[in-house]
Prior knowledge:
- The chain is of the alpha+beta class.
- A hairpin with a 7-residue loop joins strand 2 and strand 3 (23-24).
- It has a single domain, classed as Arc Repressor Mutant, subunit A (Orthogonal Bundle), CATH 1.10.10.10.
- It is elongated.
- It contains five helices and five strands.
Amino acid sequence: MRRLRAGRPGERQLTGGPPGSLRVTSWSHIVGRVDDDLVFKALADPTRRALLDLLHLEGGQSLTDLVSHMEMTRFGVMKHLRLLEEAHLVVSRKAGRRRLHYLNPVPIRQVYERWIDKYTEPTATLLTDLKATLEEER
């Protein structure tokens, strides 16, 4: 059974999981409401989108793994990862001496529901109605 346990001050740790369970300072990093401006800022940069694509292909990559796929310095990748973590698009956990990074798709889904889905619904309905009307005229 998994349950929350207090960790360091201000932290919570999911217990009952595998060794090295993910530590987060707040569950809002994973499932809460995030700042849309930070998400849009993070997604606006092609380098950050490339990092998200890499983490989508294979989660749990270290900084060294990610740097090997990018044409930039380790410090540059670290700066991009920091911004992705601030936008809650990436979560990381310590595994021994390495820090593993994982994609968190929740903020992207929230942005989709807030900014894309509600605007495409009326258009999709209109197109469906138009299709039905045109098929009836045949």
